[in-house]
Every structure is written in C-alpha cells, then in structure tokens.
C-alpha cells in the first residue's frame, strides 16, 4: 500500500484593463519541472464591468490549457519510458 503524499501548488496571476483579462498559470512539479499556460477573457462593450467574472473565465481557460499541457507531458513521458507510441490520453 502506497503512503506517499505529494502536493502541487498552482499559481494564477492576472492582468486586467477595462475590457481584457489575461491569466497566467504555473505549476511546479516535484521533479523540478514547471508547466505554464495562459488564458484570456474579453468583456463586450455592452456588458457590465465585472472584473471577477473576467478573472474566472481567463483563469478557467488558463487552467484548462495547463491540464492539457500536463496530459501531453505525461503522454510524452509514457512514450519515452516505454520506447513505443502509447494510446492517446483523452479527457
């Protein structure tokens, strides 16, 4: 039975103006590698100015991209360790 505890900390940073929100996501993995991703959101001129909503959308998009990059990294590591092409990882 495995009793190893591993924790990952994901950082999200935002840059905003009146109509755009950009998010940058970063996770540092226990092997010392880092995976980064970005997301964005744009407010339509007729929408109310709600910075929190822009952060949620841009953050979700950055986290989605981060998840896809982690899946790709894992897939590449499987291929490298096995010496063959593995089945695609689907979400």
UniProtKB/TrEMBL annotation:
The entry's protein name is: DUF1876 domain-containing protein
Segments of this protein annotated with the region Disordered: 32-53
Quote the InterPro entries the UniProt record gives.
Rv2632c-like (IPR015057), Rv2632c-like_sf (IPR038070)
Q: Kindly give the Pfam families that the UniProt entry links to this protein.
A: Rv2632c-like (PF08962)
């Amino acid at each position: 039975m495995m009793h190893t505890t591993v924790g990952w900390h994901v950082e999200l940073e935002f840059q905003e103006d009146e109509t755009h929100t950009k998010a940058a996501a970063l996770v540092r993995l226990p092997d010392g590698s880092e995976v980064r991703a970005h997301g964005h959101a744009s407010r339509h001129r007729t929408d109310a100015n709600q910075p929190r909503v822009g952060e949620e959308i841009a953050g979700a998009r950055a986290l989605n991209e981060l998840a896809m990059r982690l899946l790709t990294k894992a897939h590449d590591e499987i291929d490298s360790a096995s010496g063959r092409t593995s089945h695609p990882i689907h979400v």
